[in-house]
Amino acid sequence: MSAEPIPPLNLESVGKRYEFTKSFTWKDAVLYAIAVGAQRDELEYVYEKDLKLVPSYGAIFSVEPVIVNDMVGRGVFGLDAAPKTLLSLGNDYYVNAPLEIRDQVLRTEAFVSGIYDRGEGRGAQINVQSETYDDTGRLVYTNVERMVGLQHGGFGGEAPAHVSVEIPDRDPDAVRQQLIPENQAVLYRLTGDTYPVHIDFDVARGYGFPAPILHGLCTFGFACRALVATFFPGEPERLTSMNADYSKPVITPANIETRMWQVGSGEAVFEVANTDEDAVVIRRGRLAWK
Question: If you count Cβ atoms within 10 Å of the first and of the last residue's Cβ in the chain, which end, N or C, has fewer?
Fold first, then answer.
């Protein structure tokens, strides 16, 4: 039996905009907080009285099914759904203005901002930028989701930009340890990312994983809570940007630790390690706050 042909990349998909809306209530804020590990003593995230939003929330919009399947799948690959070799590489996330927690409909505009050649056997990098607005028309979140189409490297395109993040040559200024329970991905997918590699054992094995993997953005959210609690506790609205590369998938249950170094006024770098495997799973992390 011959191998299934690899669909060609549609480079003309770059720049074409896709728009969708999503309702938001205080329950969405609490669901997201629990999905990224918030505990019952973190009342600012889980109790509707004086509720605050885990500030990484706005990154979820770039991995909505309408984006991954319709825009990336049909747009970049010409398929009815994204190919089974699509994975997340990292995020460049910006809070333009804190989102008010009240009943409202949020609008997101998304587009493929670039397709880059990582080289033969290393895949094509697909950057999807999403811009989310509240019901007054105010831009609240901008996120660039960096994905890789594993089958498509070596097509002769421009190489992706490399951003260097220098980790100080000293022990971390702070370390926070967290347990990610076995069923965390089952819960996290209710925030909108229903990509099957996070729930379906057969799909995960098709990627070469022994079991479904945790969403990279879920680990990102765990790290965000740790960073806020360390540098500006009780004031999550001060976060302005958070950037990270995903270097290895997490299979739950897993014990992780977020290692943090403050490098300036309102600036820090970080990495996240799976201590069960002695492996760094988030590299080149950067954080900025007001």
Answer: N
